[in-house]
Design goal:
single chain, mainly beta, four-stranded antiparallel beta sheet, 1 helix, 28 strands
Length: 326
């Protein structure tokens, strides 16, 4: 056998070993245990909890920094942010003095970091320089701001008011409220269509998702999509056409076609399904079972739970770096 053949064979073997190593080194799945003040770190190969990472009090949601080097965990009652390496789950730093960060988002233009103070009834706008946060404005909103959404052009921030049944739009440049409108009972998560013309709002106090046309100067409620009791959190399926919504009371997850605004599939998700992530190939939903203290893995092809991992009290946010497009 010639040197060239040996060299080629060696390269093939090396690639195979690298591929095996890459599979074994998939980044962990993070599950926030809101009432334990920690995070369960899940091995996505063996599907076991490998450690508990301490955070501040009541971690509810998490978000990746624009440079993808840090996962930011928002500790609402701890008034702090925990920055974690998304690949190794090592704590990088803790930022204190952040007022009640319940929900959080970076703007698509990477200039703003925004938090919803759920118990304090305001939304905070921080300037982001790639490392540090500087509070620019605090906007009083309404009763219990819950979830945030920012349009693709970084012009408008939308937030639900969980206890005053409202949807509020805030101009990002001026940090002024543009409008507010009534919603169905207990609005929670929000998801915007790719063209920024439509918002989907989960009605946790109802049985479906309220659809708003936000293409004009004032919003219009155009439809309620019946999904199940306690419609709460959204996650894109990865194809930019469909979204999942967890129905926390009905113990199901519904798949919605954003174009037709119809439910096209349903999956059983026992234990109070809440926040979700989706595997990189789009096949599996990772969902926190809020009341059962578990992370569930749902196979969307077989339409059943294929993994169940014990985690902490009141699991909420779920995230992994190896995920489908959002």
């Amino acid at each position: 056998m010639t040197y060239q053949v040996w060299h080629k064979a060696g390269a093939v073997l090396l690639a195979a070993f690298c591929a095996m190593g890459a599979k074994a080194e998939l980044p962990p799945v993070f599950v926030l245990n809101s009432l334990d003040a920690n995070v369960s770190i899940i091995d996505p190969d063996k599907w076991v909890e490998t450690q508990r990472l301490a955070t501040g009090k009541e971690p509810h949601h998490l978000y990746l920094t624009p440079d993808e080097k840090s996962l930011v965990i928002a500790n609402a009652l701890g008034d702090s942010l925990t920055f974690v390496d998304p690949k190794t789950a090592q704590v990088q730093r803790v930022v204190r003095g952040i007022s009640d960060p319940y929900h959080l988002r970076f703007s698509p233009d990477m200039k703003w970091f925004i938090t919803a103070a759920n118990r304090l009834n305001h939304i905070d706008f921080y300037r982001w320089d790639g490392k540090d946060l500087t509070l620019a404005q605090r906007v009083p909103t309404g009763k219990t701001p819950s979830h945030l959404w920012i349009d693709s052009k970084s012009r408008t921030v939308y937030s639900t008011m969980q206890d005053s049944d409202e949807l509020v739009a805030i101009d990002l440049a001026t940090q002024k409220i543009k409008w507010r409108t009534k919603t169905g009972p207990m609005p929670a998560d929000i998801y915007g269509s790719p063209d920024d013309k439509t918002l989907f709002v989960g009605l946790t106090g109802g049985t479906g998702v309220e659809v708003f046309d936000v293409s004009g100067e004032q919003p219009k409620s155009v439809q309620i999509i019946k999904t199940g009791a306690g419609a709460h959190a959204f996650r894109g399926s990865g194809d930019h056409k469909h979204i999942y919504v967890s129905n926390r009371v009905a113990n199901t997850i519904s798949k919605i076609d954003m174009g037709t605004r119809m439910v096209v599939d349903n999956y059983a998700a026992p234990g109070g399904p809440d926040c979700m992530d989706v595997s990189a190939d789009g096949r599996y939903i990772y969902v926190a079972a809020r009341w059962a203290r578990k992370l569930l893995v749902i196979d969307t092809v077989e339409k059943k739970v294929v993994r169940s991992v014990n985690v902490g009290k009141s699991p909420h946010g779920v995230w992994t770096l190896h995920h489908a497009a959002r």
